[in-house]
Design a protein that fits this description.
The chain is an all-alpha fold and 199 residues long. It has 9 helices and no strands. Helix 1 packs across helix 4, helix 4 crosses helix 5 and helix 4 packs parallel to helix 7. It starts with 8 loop residues before the first helix and ends with a helix.
Length: 199
């Protein structure tokens, strides 16, 4: 077992979050525990609680890393988009592709429960940033829409892409032949955005 002064708090924090990533590369977060994670880096559970505040907040820090990675890919996709429609598709593809590549990390984002604890500002700001990007693009496509309509439409698109992603991961699309999730996203956005432009 490592001594307390073997690593700085930041080093222990980084080691723990790195090991969460490694673990989720092969296993569900349901199989992970504070004790198991602490043992993997040579420390006791109380050390991690002292650094992160709780196991809940430790997992939330891992989720923050996931959101940051998705947002980085989204920004790269936006840079290569010539139109708002292409930008929407880029965001949806990034969301879908990340889930396909890192299913357990993606699931943790939506299955994690704070168990009554308040969501920290640093996490809420990340979520608001992602939704803000989506709303800005939708507003650009039809500037005449009011803010409440823009917000509702952004959630419709996000929920729809989320559904496609989740059902694809769980192989619950109930099709006799494999369906490309990108094609489903294309169909969704084409039809929804055409209507959005007209009203």
């Amino acid at each position: 077992m490592a001594r307390r002064n073997d690593h700085t708090h930041q080093e222990i924090r980084d080691m723990a979050l790195d090991n969460v990533k490694v673990f989720l590369g092969e296993h569900s977060h349901h199989e992970l525990s504070l004790r198991k994670l602490a043992k993997s880096i040579g420390y006791v559970p109380s050390t991690l609680v002292n650094i992160f505040g709780s196991y809940n907040l430790l997992l939330l820090s891992s989720i923050a890393q996931t959101l940051d990675e998705i947002m980085l890919q989204v920004n790269q996709g936006l840079e290569n988009s010539a139109t708002p429609e292409e930008a929407l598709k880029a965001i949806a593809y990034c969301y879908y592709d990340f889930a396909q590549e890192h299913p357990n990390r993606w699931r943790l984002v939506f299955q994690h429960n704070m168990n009554g604890e308040a969501l920290p500002d640093w996490q809420e700001n990340r979520i608001n940033q992602m939704m803000g990007v989506l709303e800005e693009i939708i507003k650009t496509i039809n500037p005449h829409k009011c803010d409440s309509d823009v917000e509702k439409s952004s959630r419709v698109i996000w929920a729809s892409v989320h559904g496609i992603t989740l059902l694809s991961l769980d192989d619950l699309l109930f099709s006799s032949t494999p369906i490309d999730g990108h094609l489903l996203i294309d169909n969704l956005l084409l039809n929804y955005i055409n209507q959005w432009k007209q009203h």
